[in-house]
Structure formats: structure tokens, C-alpha cells
Amino acid sequence: MQYSIPRGTYDILPEDSPKWHRVIAEFRKLVEAYGYAEIVTPIFEQAALFERSSGESSDVVKKEMYRFTDRKGREFALRPEGTAPVARSYIENRMDIGSSYTKLYYLGPMFRYDRPQAGRYRQFYQYGVEFIGSNNPYYDAEIIAILWNYLTGLGLKKLHLELNSVGCSVCAKEYDKALRDYFQPYLNQLCPDCQERFERKPRRILDCKVKECGDIAKKAPIQLDYLDEPCREHFSEVQHYLDLMKIPFIINPRIVRGLDYYTNTAFEVIYEGIGAQNALAGGGRYNGLLNQIGGKNIPAVGFAGGFERLFLSLNEEKITLPGPPFPEVFIITIGREAQELIIPYLNIIRVKGIYAEYEPDRASLKAQLKAANNSKAYYALLIGEEEIKQKSALLKNLESGEQKLYSLEPISDLIKTIQNKEL
RNA sequence: GUGGGUGUAGUUCAACUGGCAGAGCACCGGAUUGUGGUUCCGGGCGUUGUGGGUUCGAUCCCCAUCACCCACCCCA
């Protein structure tokens, strides 16, 4: 029986893991400069947490959650997103007490039962940042700045930021009403999906891909015209701060966040050229979430991005990331005696932090040198009959071909030469 | 969940209307016994994704199934 990996998942292979380390390290370095600290939450939570936060009618909850029941009949779900668990932990650990602001970031796998396609997986890795404790539009801009600086800092160029405001719960209601008034006369011309959306979530009609719906939606009222005064002011301040931070954006009134808890600011970073799944990251303000899941009425703003799409974009722009390291020295022994002589020193070399490779299975000198060459090692260290006599080893620079004999006792000269690449 | 496409060696791909499954790259070994990269020579029976069916005969046709790709949906 040949076992295979579950659909929509993948292995991060050794040749790729250095790339992951790099993008993660860059992310940590940047967010920590903004004062954010990592939070790690379980990959599963009570299913109700997501039902309550994302909205029972959201697609995520309706059909994309991996649910399971434990041995005592409790309902759990693999987390489909990172914000609700962070909010849960914030409330549960009383992070609001003591300091008014909390800056958190997280990294890790999320799970959604979707049909896989380019840039979309069932287990995917997200990086995210949450700022909890202020409604100041400055923080909306700061969150966006972190995201933008991260992506452009990695070298990406063909991306753009789309910005919108979905208002607060009051203006959102007003807007829904305006939309229904507008679509009412066209109701029977809309696609079946949109007819259903009409009652439940009329703004979803706006980004319907069906041509008829799109045509009708073109002249529909937009949310921005229905913002109340505080929300309008908030939105304009966000833009002002973005200008100050020199972060380019375009206003897209059609951005609709998929999850129910968003208020005011909504944004996405889009990358053209990686297929249909072109949102590198998305986020926004969620002033209602904490309260909705049992906390105080605390405002917050954040974003989450996917590493898989990030890699697709980096690849698209041919931005190279580190691969596996090459050995600094490749040990070559001829005969059993040579092996006995060098193994104790091999340990010493490695403990010093030098990456040394040794493949005793290969017999001939030729085969071992070939292996050394293929490994792209910087040096080969050769021990044969001659060297044994003198308790020494022959160090060879594999690029220049230059070689020099080093005594093994003491071994410090040899180590120093390798470390400083002096030969 | 819906539609379309594709599955052949480690990999990239061939194999005419159904007739002996092949090549490049990679990998391994060798070219007088202590020197790699270039060159030359040698090395492949692979459940043709899996399971059925049609046929004298299936990589090829049919059905099912799985996986991947693309789109819808949705989003990261």
C-alpha cells in the first residue's frame, strides 16, 4: 500500500525549507520593529468560535470548515483563519488589562475544505498581524504599512493595494437598504445566486462574475456614499496617513471582506500574474469582533497573508531565495585506517559549526571526489596512506584545484583555514 | 460543490488510425591501481496513476476512481 498526501496539502521539502526560513525571518524582523510580538494558538478551536465570529452564513463556516467531534462529543474545527483565535486568546488571557494596546503577530497553518487550484490549498500557511485596542485610523495605516513594506521589502513590484471602507454596523445597514432598493426592480434578472444574496447579503451581488449581474451592479450605489460622518472621517484619515507613509493605494469600492466581522477599513494586496487567486493578503478593521465573541467592545485592525501566493509572486518576478547550504568541506578517505584517523577530527570540525560532509559508502577516490564536486563543497579534505604516516590531511580547494597539507595535531590551523576560506 | 484539461523512468517529454514502451537531462560505474568538473564508453523488465471493460492484442478506445492543472465559487 502506497500512502499519499491528503488532497490540497503538500510537503515542504528540504530544498525549499531555506526559502521558508528566509521569508519568515524577514517577516519577524519587520513586525518586531513595529513592536509586535508573536502569539501561538492551537490549530483547532471550538467550532462555535468560528461560527460566531465569521458568521453562520459565511462560506467558510457553511462548507469550508474541517469539523470534528472529540471523544466526549465536543465540536471542534481546524482553524480556517487566524483572527478569531487571536481574539479568543486576547479575551481569555485578559490582555486588555494593564495595557490599552496589544500588538500581536502569528504564523502557521490554516485549513479550509476548498477545491485546490493554483495558489489555493486545504492546508495553507498564513502570516498575520493584529492591533487591538484603538479605533485611531493611524493604526489602520500602520497595519497596511507593515504589509506593504513586507511585500515590497522582499522585492515584489507588480502588486497594488486596494482600499475601501465598509462602514460601521449603522451605515452598513443603511447601505444594504439602499442596495435592496436599487436591485429590487431587477431582481428577476439576477442570477439565482444573487437572488439569494439579495436578502442575505446584497453587497455580494457587487462582485458577482455573471455578466448580467455585473451590468446591473455597475450603477448600484456604493458604500462610500453611505458612510456616516464618523466613518467618512475615519476613512479619509486612513488615506491621509497612508499618504504620509508614501504607500500607494487605489480605492476599490467593491472590496467586500468575506468574513462578517469587518467594519470600516477593508483592503487587499493584489498581485497580477499568478492566476485567479491573486490576493496576496487581505485585512481590515474589525471593531465588532471582540464584543461578538464575548469580550468587551474593543476595536481592532489586522491583516493576514498567504505564503503560498507569496512564493508564486516571488517566483513570477524571479526573485531568488536561498537554497540549501553547500558543505564547507567534504571528507575523503582512502582505506579503513584513514577513516579511523579522521573520524574524531570530523566531530571536532562539526562541533565548531563547520558544515562537513562525509560519505563513507563510496569506495574509490575518484567517486568520492566526484561526490564532493557534486555537493558543491568549497574544500575537499583528503586522507590516504601518505597523510596517515604524517598524521595530516590534504586540503584541496575544489574551485582552484590548489591543495596544501595540514597537520591534524593540532588541528587549529586547518580549522582556521576552512573557516576563513584562506586557501 | 460545478465544469474543462492532464496523468508514461528520479525529471522533462516521445511512442502514426490499437501491434515488441523510447530519448534528453539527472543518477551510477568505467577509460592501467592518489585527484573532481570537459570528453568517450557502459548501465533502464517503468505495476504507462489505480481498478474494471471492449479486443487476438490497450499507453492509445469505454467506464469508474484518485491526483494534479485551469476556470466557477470563495478567498490567503
From TrEMBL:
EC number(s) reported in the record: 6.1.1.21
Ligase recorded as keyword: yes
Keyword tags: Ligase
Protein's name according to its UniProt entry: Histidine--tRNA ligase
Organism of origin: Candidatus Syntrophosphaera thermopropionivorans
